[in-house]
Amino acid sequence: MFNKILIANRGEIACRVIKTAQQMGVRTVAVYSDADAHSLHVAMADEAIHIGAAPSRESYLLGDKVIEAALKTGAQAIHPGYGFLSENADFCRKCADNNIVFIGPPIGAIEAMGSKSAAKQIMEKAGVPLVPGYHGEDQSRDIIKKAADDMGYPVLLKAAAGGGGKGMRQVWSEDEFDEGLEAAKRESMNAFGDDHMLVEKYLTQPRHVEIQVFCDTFGKGVYLFERDCSVQRRHQKVIEEAPAPGMTEELRQKMGEAALKAAQAISYEGAGTVEFLLDTDGSFYFMEMNTRLQVEHPVTEYITGQDLVEWQLRVASGEPLPLSQDQLSINGHAFEARVYAEDPDNEFLPATGVLEFLQAPEESENVRVDTGVRQGDEVSVYYDPMIAKLIVWDENRDKALARMSKALKEYRISGLTTNLDFLYNLANAPAFKEADLDTGFIEKHHGDIF
Ligand code: ADP
């Protein structure tokens, strides 16, 4: 096991990684920007190194600065968290060049999944089911349009380099095609500096069901079951749960095995998530693979009783997987709600300001709060305005949901606008209780939530 690791991140995920490292007796190094000098992750770590100015481009995204900090402090490995440098193949390469272990997959796996269309080509060859569509290299308008026409509308145009729901456009009919293509390309160019597009059949009522996989450096892999992340706003997850309601053992196994096939196709190592769309008829389709720890990993930790960060550290240091597939099982039900500084009554505009009063629900065996802020801290314009992740567990879905509802009610935050009431209404919407989930849930039940 490593003696010392550096966490190339901030906020709740930096704190969460530090916690596990401490439990394992691994020393920790935090990095921070000007805006984060007094942040919780800096206070929690054994050492902290300043790496630049507040904007991420001038600090958390500077791979060279992060490597320099690791070399200076003698950290043997870097945990990238999610976002920032976590899926950056160049950074991964720089770690290797400096004999630092990147706690994540090999460079080739990150590269392979970096483009949605290249990823689909690999998965097609590996026999993983794909959403019908076009993911070829030829980007001429006529080829893309013909693919859309042949498939039949509605279709979804997607940026190959996309992420965070950006560069996606639904096209409902042939005469909307050109406008949609131009808009998607423009958005993609602005966000990613690339406008390579793919086309998919637009599924009108799918669920987002993703599989947590883990592979070691000895070629062994397991899946830690699924998470249902269907409750989304603008293709962004809001509440996640595990297991997925209504999942049969047979489908779970089929999806788990497909996810492992996807991971094996790119010689994966470490924690990864294979995202699928699950259609109303029980068909499922590969969407993309995220080559990092996900925001919503705690729901999987609750139902499996495993610490995924501990698994990451073990696998990255060359140990075999802690458990085999038949040693893993699902116990109970877990939910996660993302508590944000944002205004649901005003287009969910990010809110900034000081957390004048902050009282999270009391943590227990059933309630977990992953956060990177304390009372008095500021939520600034520079980073994602997530305040905390509230995660609850109980022996079944109804009980877990009742716990979530109670915990949301107990949460007290003042000083800035939050989405707590929105989350509470969502958790209490009758259709949510009935687990009548699909990715259009929030739109469909608008009246019950707002
Ligand atoms: P991003 O990487 O930008 O998050 P994804 O490809 O992961 O984009 O898709 C995000 C969300 O968009 C999915 O969870 C789903 O809600 C929706 N989505 C993606 N592809 C389709 C599709 N073919 N049909 C319907 N909805 C889709």
UniProtKB/TrEMBL annotation:
<keyword id="KW-0067">ATP-binding</keyword>
<keyword id="KW-0547">Nucleotide-binding</keyword>
<comment type="pathway">
    <text>Lipid metabolism; malonyl-CoA biosynthesis; malonyl-CoA from acetyl-CoA: step 1/1.</text>
</comment>
<dbReference type="GO" id="GO:0005524">
    <property type="term" value="F:ATP binding"/>
</dbReference>
<dbReference type="GO" id="GO:0004075">
    <property type="term" value="F:biotin carboxylase activity"/>
</dbReference>
<feature type="domain" description="ATP-grasp">
    <location>
        <begin position="120"/>
        <end position="317"/>
    </location>
</feature>
<keyword id="KW-0092">Biotin</keyword>
<protein>
    <recommendedName>
        <fullName>Biotin carboxylase</fullName>
    </recommendedName>
</protein>
<dbReference type="GO" id="GO:0046872">
    <property type="term" value="F:metal ion binding"/>
</dbReference>
<feature type="domain" description="Biotin carboxylation">
    <location>
        <begin position="1"/>
        <end position="447"/>
    </location>
</feature>
<keyword id="KW-0809">Transit peptide</keyword>
<comment type="subunit">
    <text>Acetyl-CoA carboxylase is a heterohexamer of biotin carboxyl carrier protein, biotin carboxylase and the two subunits of carboxyl transferase in a 2:2 complex.</text>
</comment>
<keyword id="KW-0436">Ligase</keyword>
<comment type="function">
    <text>This protein is a component of the acetyl coenzyme A carboxylase complex; first, biotin carboxylase catalyzes the carboxylation of the carrier protein and then the transcarboxylase transfers the carboxyl group to form malonyl-CoA.</text>
</comment>
